[in-house]
């Protein structure tokens, strides 16, 4: 019985460590030109085309960038660089922006 508890505890700890390591790997920086903007409840989603011809849908909200002092409204045609959590859904690239690095 003690061995079963130890093995169970070890499996829980290993699962936690693996999940934490996986979450860190999802951070990414994306730079490119804003092609379109769609408004949302507390922010917007900007479609960004990169120099490598990749398309990203960047969700930018006041809460995710750390408050109104870090929030910026971009315009179509702006060159932007953003950092955040990346994920892919079917054939679309998405990024939940946690930092707006630059807007030109």
- End-to-end separation in angstroms reads 63 Å
CATH topology: OB fold (Dihydrolipoamide Acetyltransferase, E2P)
| Major β-sheet annotation | 5 strands, mixed, barrel
Query: Which class best fits the helix and strand makeup?
Result: alpha+beta
Fraction of residues in β-strands: over 45%
Please count the beta strands (DSSP E, at least 2 residues each).
5
C-alpha-based Rg, rounded? 18 Å
CATH class: Mainly Beta
Number of domains: 1
Full CATH superfamily name: Nucleic acid-binding proteins
Please write the string of helix (H) and strand (E) elements: HEEEEE
Strand order of the largest sheet: 1-2-3-5-4
Share of residues in helices: 10-25%
Mean pLDDT: 89
SS summary, helix count? 1
CATH-defined architecture: Beta Barrel
Shape: elongated
Q: Uncertain regions: pLDDT < 50 for 5+ in a row? A: none
Signal peptide: 1-23
Protein name: DUF3221 domain-containing protein
Organism: Flavobacterium resistens
Keywords: Signal
Describe this structure in words.
With 104 residues, the chain is of the alpha+beta class. The chain has a single domain, classed as Nucleic acid-binding proteins (OB fold (Dihydrolipoamide Acetyltransferase, E2P), Beta Barrel). The chain is 22% helix and 48% strand. The protein contains 1 helix and 5 strands. The protein has one helix at 2-24, and strands at residues 27-39, 43-49, 55-61, 79-89, 92-103. It has a 5-stranded mixed barrel with strand order 1-2-3-5-4. A hairpin with a 5-residue loop joins β2 and β3. The protein is elongated, with a radius of gyration of 18 Å. The protein starts with a helix and ends with a strand.
């Amino acid at each position: 019985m003690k061995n079963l508890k130890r093995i169970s505890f070890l499996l829980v700890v290993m699962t936690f460590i693996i999940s934490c390591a996986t979450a860190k790997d999802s951070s990414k920086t994306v730079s490119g030109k804003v092609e379109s903007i769609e408004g949302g409840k507390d922010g917007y989603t900007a479609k960004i085309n990169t120099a490598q011809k990749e398309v990203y849908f960047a969700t930018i909200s006041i809460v995710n960038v750390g408050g109104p002092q870090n929030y910026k409204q971009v315009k179509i045609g702006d060159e932007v660089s953003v950092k955040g959590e990346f994920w892919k859904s079917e054939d679309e690239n998405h990024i939940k922006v946690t930092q707006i690095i630059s807007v030109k």
